[in-house]
Every structure is written in structure tokens, then in C-alpha cells.
Amino acid sequence: MWESLLEFLVQGIILGGLYALFAVGLTLIFGVLEVINIAHGEFFALGGYLVFAAVVLLGLRPVVGIVAASLGAFAVGLAVYPLLLAPLRRRLGRRPYGALYLVLTLGLSTFMQNGLLAVAGGEYLQVPPHVAGILDLSFTALSYQRILVFVVAMALLAGLFAFLLLHRQGLAVRAVAQNPEAAQAMGINLGRIFSLTIALGVGLAGAGGALIAPQFNVYPAVGLPLTIKAFAITILGGMGNLLGALVASLVVGVTESLAVMVIPSEWQNLIAFAVMVLVLLVRPQGLLGRAVVR
Amino acid sequence: MTTRGTWLGGLAVAAILLPLAVPHPFVLTIATQALIWALLASSWDLLSGYAGQVSFGHAGFFVLGGYTAAITSKSLGLSAWLGVWLGALLAAVVGLAVGFPALRLRGHYLALITLGFAEILRLVAQNWLSLTGGPFGIYGYATFSGLPADPLLRRQALYVVVASLFAMAVIGERTPAGKAFRAIREDELLAATLGIHTTRYKLLAFALSSGFAGLAGTLYAYYVLLVSPTLASPATTALVIGMAVFGGLGTIWGPAAGALLLYGVNEALRFVGVVYNLIVVGLIIMTFVIFVPEGLAGVVRRRPAPRVRRSPPARSTDASRSIGG
Amino acid sequence: MSLVVDDLHAGYGRLEILQGVAVRVDTGEMVGLIGPNGAGKSTLLKTIFGYLRPFGGVIAFGDESLVGLRPDQVLHRGIGFLAQDGGLFADMTVHENLVLGGYSLRTRGDVEQALDQTFTQFPLLRDRRRQRAGSLSGGEQRLLGLARALMVRPRLILLDEPSAALAPRFIDRVYDAIVALNRSGLALLIAEQNVEMILGVARRVYVLDLGQNAFDGSPAELRETERIRRLYLGEVA
Questions:
Q1: Of C15, C22, C214, the CB nearest to B310
Q2: Residues of A whose CB is below 8 A from B275
Q3: Helix axes of B107-127 and B234-247: crossing angle, nearest 10 degrees
Q4: Quick one: which of A86, A164, A175, B178 could link to B172 by a disulfide (CB 3.0–4.6 Å)?
């Protein structure tokens, strides 16, 4: 009994790690731009497609494939602000009609997902595990592929936090999140920071998609369940709160995993949404309160 | 107002006459489905564009209506004529229920909770095999009874849809409720201080909007004769929002027109290939939100507002007012 | 390097607040901007700095036009801005705030050097460098804002009501610092509600009312003009 509990716990933590890559990026974008990126899942899918192209089509090493996929998502992400959000912001002026930005990212999501469908087709593409082998623990056996996902996810997130805390541009990102006008008075170019932030956020998603491709397979809508779940996680952790998103990701991952022991797996996905609705009703600012990106 | 009335009238007349003038089954099919989407799009606009409570979960009410219709007809053998109102009513009631907690939420939070609601409904529809038939949905139930030949069936649905559209447009534009909705959208705090029962009207907006969405759902169910969980997918919501943005938020008739046009475009593009039409939809959403946020409706009635000078307050006669700069 | 503003029309959205305002600040000059609430003092400073785009008129610094520039671009031209609420990053430390002040400096060495200078000039900030900016007292926060703006050694600083919401002793400290900075060559355009304070230190003052220039001259001239005194000096609570 304890063994299976432990097993599910570990699986849950690993799942939570993947969720965290996704949700932290989403929260980062929201914290700095006040925009919910509905197209986040499409960048996740893009990462999967890029790693497929790199590893399966071009025969490159998995490491190269994952890096290429992350950079690819990052690069595409750089274009989102100047091409889409900036023109809308110019048009709206000071009025923050947030709903229109949501609609914009919704349009982007539709466009990207169906674009991927058009270009690559709808079949589930397969990617071989990035690392082979299984780690034998007393209570369970973990594939190295799974461990890789978790380790790399945590490393990337640690890198992000370090960047935000120590690097000059990371400081600028936090400044913009806290007080955009004051940040401008410091000589910070808002547009550049916005672009960088989105690129970082979706770059993480792309990395996640590349990492988990062997397990989830690659298809245009692969990011959809994650996107919606990430909304729930973000609400739970407090929108704009990076640490909250990380913690909430792990909590949701573990809860989902443990819940499988009690409820049938098809209903598993319901948990995140039910939790989200509950949180929105009871405490919209999330478990850890609405703290802006520090 | 008169120009708008003429437009609405013209649109309605055209919509009604079209299938009659060209009783080709293909045209009728497209026209009917387009009007169902038009109803759904304008119902979304009533809540999100008009009353300013942006909902990302309208697919949920749509599906609720559709499944109610299908289930009551299949399991209870109820007539479609009854099922239509049952579906709409249930959706309205649920919409009202959703409206209560939504009262406290704004902007992003409201959008997300409605999205969560739609997702929950979709998952329920997908997994509750005994009630909803699971991923394959429900089919094999009877549609509107007592109807003559095929073309007439279409006409009936058309009439119902158009009548509802008008009802909504009327509510939106002419009745005090419409004005209240707009006031709430512009500045809720101000509206409250002006004595508008914002709570009551927001709930009304939810109930009406979801009711009409449910109605659209029942019509869909009785027309297509198949309901499945994918109807509640975010793609449906995306399509609806796209149509509304294209047509012009906050005008009711705009999204309806947008839906008609976009659906026509969608179907035409279907000949090119199933995948491409949604790409175009995505592009249209993005382009219109950025460059033409008022949508087609805005293009129709655009007049730039003049700059306002802040006028000096009425002061007592004081010659010093004339001091030069 | 003079700041010249002429026939400036500006406002928010479609509401025009400034209706043809003219202002001038010469090199190293301390100029005051007073007037009733809503006269447009804040709007003027924000428009000069680029937060608002003017409807029309001239804004020039040296021989370069500032119209249409973003705030970060105006900063690079040598003008700093201190917002009414201080504009601090409250959740960051004093040190981080100052480092951000030096964001546009080219090298790390420049930033370190500027930090050293700042701490010499404002020793109390060195003591508090690890403290959260939001936990400082009102006056210390204002000084931090000033020190932060000075990190890039601007030629002119726009100050929006530096004495707002400060206790009198803090106001004195802040103005002491301002006067010292002016003496070392920094030009300042200071919008103020606290008329007495600004009249005591400024070389010239402008009076704005309802978005238009109502007076321009030295503090002494201002005090002498009976009508002005009655209207504007008498109005101050």
C-alpha cells in the first residue's frame, strides 16, 4: 500500500515538474504583460514538432534536438509581441481592455494549431525516448526518460529564477512587472522586455514539449489539455506569482496522480478544473496570494 | 437608429428570403447552420460584448441545450417542439447559476471560470456514458414532428432562429435592459451609482445569453441530429468569438452578420481542405482584433469622436480671469 | 542645454488638458510649476517625458525635439523623471532600485561607480541598501527616488510634487538635497502644491491654471502681484 502510494507520489512529482515548465512560463507572461497566452499550448506542440524534425527526420542527437526545439519556440515567441500585441496596444492606448488581448491570443492559438495541422498532418508522430534505460527503485521503476524530463525542467526553472534575480535584464523584467511606468523612467524599453518575456515563457513551453514528446507523442492539439490545466494551476498559485505557479504545479501533479487510486482515470482531468472553479469562487487571488513577479 | 433598423430589417428579410428564393438543399443547409451559429454568436455578444462580461465558455451552454434536446427526445420521447424550449430553459437556468459566482469576478478571472465551466461540461459529456453516450455522443432521435417536406423543415428552423435574433436585438437595443447592459460594460461603478441594479442586470444578461445559446444548441441538435462532446471544445468557443469579433462586438446584429459571412467563408473554404478554413478563422480573429476591433459593424457606422476641451467651471465674475499667459 | 516647451496641447484620450502651454528651463536652472489641482502640472511633466503624446506643440531639449519619443528615449537624452508617488519598486531592495536607476549605463563598472557616488552623497541609503524599498519612511523613499534618478547623471530632472504626502521635516531634507543638486549644476522643473517651499528655492516660477499659462516670473514678482497672490497663494491649504 505504501509502496504504491510512494510510486504514485513520485509519478505525480514528475508530472508536476512538466506542469511547472508550462505554468511558470504562462504566469511569467501574465505577470509582466497582464495577458493570458491562450496559445501557450501551441508552442508546447511546436517544441514537440521541432524535436521530431531534429531527431527523427534529421537524425540529430536528442540533446541537440531538445535545445533546437527550445530555441525555435523562443525565436517564434520573440515575434509575438511586435507583430500582434504591440499593434493592439497602440490602438487601445491606455485603456487596458484585457479581453481583446485574450481574443488575440485565442486567434493565434487557432491559427497555430491549424497551421501545424496543415503543415504536418494530424497523425500522432512518435519520438523515441531521449534516454534509454530504467532506474530500479525498491518501490517502483522509473524510466530515465521520465527522470530526464523532471531534472531538465527543474534546471530550466532554476535558470529562469537565477536570471530574474541576478541578471540585469532579469531585473528589468521584474521591474516592468511591478511598475511599468517607473521602469520606463529607468530607460527600460518596454517593448523589448515584453518580447523577451514572451519568448522566455513560450521557450519553456517548447522545451517541455520537446522533453515529453516521447511520452505524449506529437500532434497539433497535444498542448490543449495542458493549457487549460495550466490556467487552473496559475489561478491556484496566484496569477503573476512564479513561485506560486511552481508549487501549485507540483500540488496538482501529485493530486492528480494520487487521485487515480480513488477515481477512474478519465475523470482525472476534471480535478484541475474543479479545483480552479473552486479557487476562483473562494479565493481568486490563489493560495499564495496575488504577488507580482518579485 | 433608423439606419441600423433598416440594416437589421434588410438582413432579416434577406435571411428569410434566401432559402425560399433558392430552395436548393445545399444552400438551405448552409443557411440554416449559419443562422444557428449567428444565434450563438449574437448570444455570446449579448453577454460579452454588450454587457461586458466576457465569457469563454459559451460552448458549454450550447452543448447543454443540444444534449438536453437529444436526451429528452431520445430517452423520453419528447417532441422536438418541447425539447427546444426545455433545452433553452435549462441553459438559461444554468447560465443564471453560473452568473451568481461570476458576479464577483472580472476580466481574466471571469473568462477563466467560464472556460473551466465549459471544459467540465465537455468532460462530463465525454465520460458519463450512461447519460450522454460518451465520446460518440447521442444520435438516432427524432426531430421536429409534423413537418411537411424537407425544405419546409429548414424554413421552420430559420424562422425560429431569426425570430430569436430579433428578440435579442430588440432587447439589446430598445428596452431599458439594453441600456443598462451598455452602462455596466462602460463603467460598472458609475452605473451602480446611477442607480442601476448591476447585479440584477448582470444576472439577466447571463440568463438571456445562455438561454439563447442553449436554444441554438437545441436547433443544432434537431438539425444535425447528432450531438457529441467536441461541440463543447474550445474550438467552438474560438469560432464563436471569431465570428463576433469579425462582426463587431457589442452590436448583437454584428456578430450575427459576422457569423453568416464567416460560416459562408468556412464552407466555401472547405472545398480547399478541412484544415485551412480554421487557419483563416484564426487569421481573421487576429487581424480584426488589431486593425478593426469594431468589426464589420464598426465599419458600417464609424464616425470619429471629436476632441473634448475641458471647459472652465462656472466661476464668480473675476476680472483676473483675463490674465495673459 | 535648455528645455523649451511652446504652445503645447496635450491630454488624455480625447480630453485636452493643456491648451497651449509654454515653459522654459535653462541650463542649471531651478524652475517651479504651481497652480491649482487639475491645472495640468502633472500632465505637462508627463507629456515632456513622453508618457503622453501631445496633440500639438513644441517640446525641445537643446536643439532636439522630444515629441513622439518614448520615456526611455527621453531618459537617454539626459532628462530624468520622479513620479508623484515616488515610482519606486517597492518589493525590491534599495540596492536593486539603484541598480535599476543605472540600467542604461554602459558597463558594470559604470554602475558600480555610480553606486559608490550615490552612497557617498546619500549615506543613509548605504545603511539601508539591503532593505525593501517599500519599508523605508516617506522621506527616505523620496530621497531614494532622487538618488536613483541621479544614477545616470541627467542634466535635467522633472519632479512631480516631491513634497506630496511628506511630513514637514522630511520635506526639508528632500529640498536640502534638491538645492544642493541644483548648486552642482543640475536643472530642475518642479511641480508643486506646496507653494511656499518652491518659492523659497526656485529661480523662476510658472503658474498654470486650467491648462494655460497664468503667470511667469521670479518668486518675488509673484508675491508682488496682488491678484496672483490672492488667487494662488491664498488657495493653498
A1: C15
A2: 114, 117-118
A3: 140
A4: B178
